[in-house]
C-alpha cells in the first residue's frame, strides 16, 4: 500500500490541496492494514487482525494485566479491537461471508479502523479526508467498489440518494465525530506497482516501471490473484486461484489436530509462530507430517500459477 504525502501545508505553487489527509486502509482476508502520514511528517503504519470481538467476550482479567484492546461503542453495541485482539477466542471476522462488503461485520470493521486512524493521526472534524483502498482486479468496475465506498462513507448502498454521514464512535470513553469526504478504490495490482514506482513523497522513484511489464502475484488468505501491469496500465488478464495462506494454515492445523486431538490453533497463532521465527532469524521446527503438508500445499499453488501462465507471451 502506497503512503501518500501529507499536504496540509499546500504545495510550492500555492495551490490549496483538495484533501488535508490521505489514509490507506486495506481490510483484507486476515489482516487489516492502515497507512498514512502524521502531522509531523512521520510515516504511520498499523497492521492488526481483520477481526474484532464483542466486548462482553473479552472476559475478566485474573491478574492486574489487562488485554491491550480498546472498547469501541458503535450504534449501541460494544466491540473490542487492538494489539491483542487475537488473544480473544471468540472473534467476529470481516471476511468469509457472501457479499462481505455489505455485511454488518465489514461495516463495523471499517468504522473501527477509521476511528483508530482518526484518533492516532489527530484528524480534526473539519479536515477533508480521502480514504484509499483496493480490490482484486476481478472486482474492479463492479458493484463491489460501490459497496466498499458505502461502508466507509456510512451510506446506504441501495439508496442512490443516500449521503455520507458523520460517524459517531466512542473509543475507551472518548466520543469522537468524524467523516470521510471521499473513497478511492484501486485495483490492488496497480497499487502494488505504484508503490514501487513512486516514493513516499509521491515523486517518481523508479521510472523503469514506465516501460516495464510486471507480473503481480498476490497471495492472500483465501485466494492467489494473478495480474499483469504493463507500462503502468493493468491488463485485462486477471485470474484468481482459490488457494491462499489459509490453505497452508489448514494443512498444518489438520496435522496438529490429528496428532493432538482437541488442540485448537488459530490462523493468527500460526502467523505469530512464523513471524517470531522470522524476527529472531530462527528455523521453525515442524513435525515431519506437518512439514510435508506445508510443502505440498505451497508446491500445488506454484504449479497452478505456472499452469495458468504457461501460454503467456513475455
Structure description:
There is one protein chain. With 314 residues, this protein is an alpha+beta fold. It is built from 6 helices and 15 strands. Helices cover 28% and strands 25% of the residues. The strands form 3 sheets. Strands 7-4-6-5-9-10 form a 6-stranded antiparallel β-sheet, with helices on one face. Helix 4 (245-259) runs antiparallel to helix 6. It is globular. Mean pLDDT is 80; it is low at 1-15 and 281-285.
pLDDT averaged over residues: 80
- SSE pattern, N- to C-terminal: EEEEEEEHEHEEEHEEEEHHH
Major sheet summary line:
6 strands, antiparallel
Termini gap: 26 Å
Q: Low-confidence stretches at least 5 residues in length (pLDDT < 50)?
A: 1-15, 281-285
Structural features:
314 residues; alpha+beta; six-stranded antiparallel β-sheet; 6 helices; 15 strands; 28% helix; disordered N terminus
Compile the SSE list and pairings:
Layout: E1 21-27, E2 31-37, E3 43-49, E4 51-54, E5 70-74, E6 77-81, E7 92-93, H1 104-121, E8 129-135, H2 143-153, E9 167-171, E10 174-178, E11 182-187, H3 188-197, E12 213-219, E13 224-230, E14 233-234, E15 239-241, H4 245-259, H5 267-279, H6 288-309
Parallel strand pairs: 1-8, 8-11
Antiparallel strand pairs: 1-2, 2-3, 4-6, 4-7, 5-6, 5-9, 9-10, 12-13, 13-14, 13-15
Amino acid at each position: 500500500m502506497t503512503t501518500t504525502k501529507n499536504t496540509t501545508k499546500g504545495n510550492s505553487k500555492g495551490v490549496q490541496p483538495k484533501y488535508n489527509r490521505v489514509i490507506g486502509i486495506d481490510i483484507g482476508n486476515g489482516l487489516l492494514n492502515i497507512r498514512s502520514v502524521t502531522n509531523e511528517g512521520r510515516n504511520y503504519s498499523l497492521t492488526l487482525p481483520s477481526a474484532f470481538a464483542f466486548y462482553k467476550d473479552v472476559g475478566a482479567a485474573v491478574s492486574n494485566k489487562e488485554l491491550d484492546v480498546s472498547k469501541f461503542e458503535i450504534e449501541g453495541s460494544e466491540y473490542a479491537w487492538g494489539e491483542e485482539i487475537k488473544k480473544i477466542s471468540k472473534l467476529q471476522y470481516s471476511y468469509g461471508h457472501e457479499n462481505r462488503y455489505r455485511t454488518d461485520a465489514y461495516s463495523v470493521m471499517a468504522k473501527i479502523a477509521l476511528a483508530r486512524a482518526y484518533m492516532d493521526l489527530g484528524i480534526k472534524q473539519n479536515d477533508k479526508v480521502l480514504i484509499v483502498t483496493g480490490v482484486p482486479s476481478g472486482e474492479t468496475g463492479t458493484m463491489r467498489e460501490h459497496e466498499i465506498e458505502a461502508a466507509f462513507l456510512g451510506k446506504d448502498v441501495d439508496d442512490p440518494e443516500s449521503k455520507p454521514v458523520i460517524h459517531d464512535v466512542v473509543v475507551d470513553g472518548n466520543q469522537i465525530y468524524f467523516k470521510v469526504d471521499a473513497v478511492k478504490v484501486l485495483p490492488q495490482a496497480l497499487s502494488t506497482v505504484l508503490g514501487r514506482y513512486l516514493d513516499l513523497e509521491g515523486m517518481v522513484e523508479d521510472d523503469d516501471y514506465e516501460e516495464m511489464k510486471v507480473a503481480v502475484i498476490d497471495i492472500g488468505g483465501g485466494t492467489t490473484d494473478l495480474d499483469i501491469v504493463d507500462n503502468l496500465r493493468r491488463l485485462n488478464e486477471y485470474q484468481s486461484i482459490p488457494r491462499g495462506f489459509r490453505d497452508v494454515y489448514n494443512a498444518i492445523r489438520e496435522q496438529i489436530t490429528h496428532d493432538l486431538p482437541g488442540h485448537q490453533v488459530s490462523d493468527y497463532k500460526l502467523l505469530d509462530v512464523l513471524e517470531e521465527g522470522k524476527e529472531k532469524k530462527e528455523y521453525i521446527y515442524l513435525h515431519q507430517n506437518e512439514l510435508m503438508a506445508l510443502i505440498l500445499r505451497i508446491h500445488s499453488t506454484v504449479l497452478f500459477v505456472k499452469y495458468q501462465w504457461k501460454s503467456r507471451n513475455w
